[in-house]
Design brief:
single chain, about 375 residues, alpha/beta, Rossmann fold, 2 domains, seven-stranded mixed β-sheet, four-stranded parallel β-sheet, 11 helices, elongated, binds 6-O-phosphono-beta-D-fructofuranose
Length: about 375
């Protein structure tokens, strides 16, 4: 019997989403003759029954495009704003799933999407997820769709900031995304040769950071590039606290940018070192534009495998990247587990090895 599969993208968009939708759709339709329905704007489209039937025509020409052809949102099925109220719309979703006679629903997303997908699994729906987030913070998978592209963009930004920091003898503080993990900051910082890298996993001492900048100055390098993850925090929050106004800017009320933590850190370093400072907040630039070849390959591999899983009736799992292969990881094993940077990760060792300050030790060289 012909199977029907629904697909949605939820959470922040990520380069490679279209490549994943294309691979799933082309394999499901072309290899297995399935019907594929896309829901618009994440779980919201599933509630409102806003669909797009995917076919060879609309799946064509999207491989290289950033964003998601389906649209996305951060809406949660169990807490959705409807007519001025926040309602649990889970039952409506279950109803619509059955109305379309779906055999499976594929949710492509990050940590939040996985929690929401798991709730639907518990309601009896056949769920498969694909790991997507520029933050790379999903447990159970080697990597996530979009991370490689964002890493490249952040690295290029560091490359470009070097020449201007050098010319003006300035400290340039670059804030990169990553939510509560430091994968993007650490990876781009190491790849771009940042002098200081601050990540949430390693609370920092402002004094160690300013010392390392002064040490560089004494060695004749009177400029520094500081890469700060949006979730990085000082050991003593009071050290850089009262010097800027507070701003609620993050999706969870944290203050990743604008007049927040990064600006205060830059001002503090300027005061402590006497070097002029500038701040660059990379923001959503990191999520925009075409995916890298790596992300296209990853998304195509995972999307293809997802069609196989639907065919085999393998549900309740994430299609995880494992080396050059894929693996079915039960959703119950990963939901709610954030993948932080382990403190003994090779990237951390590499950074320390080349003398990069991570804000937790006095600079010795
Ligand atoms: O999860 C991806 C991400 O880009 C995070 O790095 C960042 O904290 C957040 O999304 C920003 O969310 P929004 O696009 O809703 O502002």
């Amino acid at each position: 019997m012909t199977k029907a599969v629904g697909v949605l993208t939820a959470g922040g968009d990520s380069p490679g989403l279209n490549a994943a939708i294309r691979a799933l759709g082309k394999a499901a339709i072309g290899k297995y003759g399935m019907n594929v329905i896309g829901f618009r704007d994440g779980f919201r489209g599933l509630v409102e029954n806003r669909i797009i039937r995917l076919n060879r025509d609309n799946l064509s020409g999207i491989l290289t495009m950033g964003g998601t052809m389906l649209g996305t949102s951060r809406e949660k099925p169990h807490r959705m704003p409807v007519g001025g109220k926040t309602l649990d719309m889970t039952d409506v979703i279950v109803e619509n799933y059955h109305k379309h006679h779906l055999d499976a629903l594929v949710c492509i997303g990050g940590g939040g999407t996985h929690k929401n997908a798991f709730r639907l699994l518990e309601k009896g729906l056949n769920i498969i997820t694909l790991p997507k987030t520029i933050d790379n913070d999903l447990a159970g998978t080697d990597t996530t769709i979009g991370f490689d592209t964002a890493l490249g963009i952040a690295t290029e930004a560091i490359d470009r900031l070097h020449s201007t920091a050098h010319s003006h003898h300035r400290i340039i503080v670059l804030e990169v995304m990553g939510h509560n993990t430091g994968w993007l900051a650490l990876g781009s910082g190491v790849a771009g040769g940042a002098d200081v890298i601050l990540i949430p996993e390693i609370p920092y001492e402002v004094g160690y950071v300013s010392d390392s900048i002064l040490r560089r100055s004494r060695g004749g390098k009177n400029f520094s590039i500081i890469v700060v993850a949006e979730g990085a925090q000082p050991r003593d929050p009071d050290e850089i606290a009262a010097k800027g106004k507070k701003q609620q800017n993050g999706r969870d009320g944290s203050e990743p940018s604008g007049d927040g933590h990064t600006m205060r850190l830059a001002r503090e370093l300027e005061e402590r070192t006497g070097l002029e400072s500038r701040v660059t907040i990379l923001g959503h630039l990191q999520r925009g534009g075409a995916p890298t070849a790596y992300d296209r390959l990853l998304a195509t591999r995972i999307g293809n495998a997802c069609a196989d899983f639907v065919r085999e009736g393998q549900y309740g799992v994430m299609v995880a990247a494992r080396g050059e292969d894929v693996e079915a990881v039960p959703l119950k094993d990963i939901v709610g587990n954030r993948k932080s940077v382990p403190l003994d990760h090779p990237w951390i060792q590499s950074a320390r090895g080349v003398g990069t300050c991570l804000g937790d030790e006095k600079a010795e060289r």
